[in-house]
Design a protein that fits this description.
globular; 3 helices
Length: about 160
């Protein structure tokens, strides 16, 4: 009888899995927390106001600011080079809402401040490249941005 109990206990432990080593239950933000992505279209010598706000790096965070843009050129006009986006109302007047954060993707919306439109942003990663697919509630226009994964540390920390 003692031998059966020991064998039963060994069988139970051998068949159970260690969920802590299973990364498939992580969210998208957990998987890519702190990863720095480089914008291949960064404008290092800005010639326009739009160029001035060009982001060199994009950082995903599993914290209050789920997305951070590193924009070194804005220091020329005395603005903070790190611009974080958090869920809820942000300093730019826009309200961001994370609508999906699973293992494979992130989706969030922005009310675009006073423009009365809703931006829907789908974020995915494929082959060390992050993609931002943006669509609008008031238009059929869409566009895609991407950035390449780096091994750099977060320049905003």
């Amino acid at each position: 009888m003692k031998r059966i109990l020991i064998l039963s206990a060994l069988f139970i432990f051998a068949c159970s899995s260690d969920d802590s080593s299973d990364s498939s239950n992580q969210t998208f933000l957990e998987r890519f927390d702190g990863v720095v992505w480089e914008n291949p279209y960064f404008v290092s010598d800005p010639q326009s106001e739009e160029d001035l706000y060009s982001a060199q790096y994009i950082i995903l965070n599993n914290s209050s600011n789920f997305l951070t843009y590193y924009r070194p050129n804005v220091s020329m006009v005395n603005l903070n080079t790190c611009y974080g986006i958090s869920e809820g109302l942000n300093s730019n007047g826009e309200t961001y809402t994370i609508t999906n954060n699973d293992y494979n993707s992130l989706q969030f919306t922005s009310d675009n401040g006073e423009e009365n439109t809703l931006s829907i942003v789908d974020v995915t990663v494929s082959n060390n490249r992050i993609y931002f697919d943006v669509s609008y509630s008031t238009s059929t226009n869409t566009y895609q941005e991407f950035a390449n994964r780096t091994t750099l540390t977060d320049p905003c920390e």
